[in-house]
Input
Amino acid sequence: MGAGQSISTEFFRDELAKNFLSDYAAEHFEIASYKALIATAEQIGEHECIPVLEEILSEEEAMARWLEERIPFAVRESLKKTSSAAS
Ligand SMILES: [Fe+2]
Output
């Protein structure tokens, strides 16, 4: 029981930082996907959907920037939890 608790506590201490990193990676996958969709739309002549795709791409890029700016905070908070749990 104690070993299981130790493992779960260890896992959750850095959960915030891991979530930020995971979300940041997911946003960049979405950015790449929208860029691919825009290139595809251009290639096949579906130009009317490009403004919508570009608008969504801008939103994904803004979210990635928002996360990027907060990664240091998330890491500091996770390290605080780690150091307070160790003492
Ligand atoms: Fe997104």
Summary: The two ends are 21 Å apart (CA to CA). Residues 27, 30, 60, 63 surround fe (ii) ion (CB under 6 Å).
